[in-house]
Design a protein that fits this description.
Number of domains: 2
Strand order of the largest sheet: 6-7-8-3-9-10
Shape: elongated
Strand content: 25-35%
Low-confidence stretches: 309-323
Order of helices and strands: EEEHEEHEHHHEHEHEEHEHEEHEHH
Helix content: 25-40%
CATH topology of the largest domain: Rossmann fold
Radius of gyration: 24 Å
Distance between the termini: 43 Å
Structural class: alpha/beta
Mean pLDDT: 86
Largest sheet: 6 strands, mixed
Number of helices: 12
């Protein structure tokens, strides 16, 4: 593994009687997106605040791009960018004016701030809207402009704390593309998000934290493989449920689950082939409307490792309701 660009060891943060971080250990290589997941109150935002020098740790160490966040916060701030959950834009200014002001605050100078703002607006598709008041921007455009503002100093590390909350699908995908381009340019991104699909799409590695420390870590593929797949069968009527359950129990060696909407589900590893499943169901006289092997998602991983698993039958019912 390459030397970590973000490294924490036994990182702790206490607010009165509440310990938000309880010994957080991270080692994040450069030039990647690292997804940090966890339930509300798990310590994600506290971690980002410490790494971005907005708050000091109670104990432990945190190093970003070679600089200790407690001992040398000024050097850390020179190499990072931060996009928080709320935008920091002045709606009475144009997009271009906002960026130029942020550039001046970042000590780029008048000429440097002007050039950097123009370059970033052009690169990320906001040049045409650059001279409009940000009050007229859509939610997605504001978030993109806010993200651009964090890139004015070309940071080595970018912290994205819930960057697409409240955005529509198209706007979220535009932000995703921007993040991918940043990684290609050499930026390391630490991403927190409530949208697990977002982390699955972007992150090369994922850490799940609960009660202030890491409870699972790995690539999305590796984490999902620990949960295992499941067979899902939708039968024609209630009369075929028993036959389908008997077939799945024989194939998987596990007792299947069934709900009231003719859905039968069984966890399985390794997975039988679909032709084998269909043949066995047909031989048993179970008439089916649908059968498939469903792969786990990061939602399944998240719920399992944080102690709140959702049964495959519940998940199947949710999907059927959406459909």
């Amino acid at each position: 593994m390459e030397e970590a660009i973000i490294h924490t060891q036994d990182l702790r943060k206490r607010y009165g009687d509440v310990e938000a971080l309880t010994g957080l250990d991270l080692a994040i290589p450069p030039n990647m997106v690292y997804g940090l997941l966890g339930p509300n109150g798990a310590g994600k935002s506290t971690c980002v605040r410490i790494l971005s020098t907005l708050t000091r740790p109670t104990s432990g160490t945190a190093v970003v791009a070679g600089f200790d966040v407690a001992q040398d916060p000024g050097s850390v701030r020179k190499v990072i960018g931060l996009t928080g959950q709320d935008t920091t834009l002045d709606e009475k200014l144009t997009g271009r004016e906002n960026l130029r002001i942020f550039g001046r605050l970042s000590r780029l100078g008048v000429r440097g701030a002007r050039k950097r703002a123009d370059d970033l607006l052009e690169r990320f598709g906001l040049a045409a809207a650059g001279d409009r008041l940000t009050a007229s921007y859509s939610g997605g455009m504001r978030r993109r402009l806010d993200l651009i503002a964090s890139l004015l100093r070309a940071p080595a590390v970018l912290f994205l704390d819930e960057p697409t909350t409240g955005l529509d699908v198209r706007s979220r995908m535009e932000i995703w593309q921007t993040v991918r381009e940043l990684v290609v340019d050499g930026t390391t991104v630490l991403l927190t998000s409530q949208y697990l699909e977002e982390v699955d799409q972007l992150a090369a590695s994922v850490g799940v934290i609960d009660h202030g420390h890491v409870v699972a870590e790995g690539t999305p593929v590796a984490l999902k493989s620990q949960i295992g797949s499941h067979i899902e069968v939708v039968v024609q009527s209630e009369g075929h449920v028993a036959n389908a359950m008997a077939v799945l129990e024989r194939l998987t060696g596990r007792r299947p689950e069934a709900d009231g909407s003719h859905v039968v589900v069984a966890a399985v590893h390794p997975v039988p082939t679909l032709p084998q499943i269909v043949r066995e169901l047909d031989n048993a006289g179970a008439l089916v409307r649908d059968v498939g092997v469903r792969e786990p998602s990061l939602d399944d991983v998240f719920l399992a490792v944080t102690g709140k698993p959702v049964s495959p039958v519940q998940r199947a019912g949710d999907l059927e309701a959406v459909a």
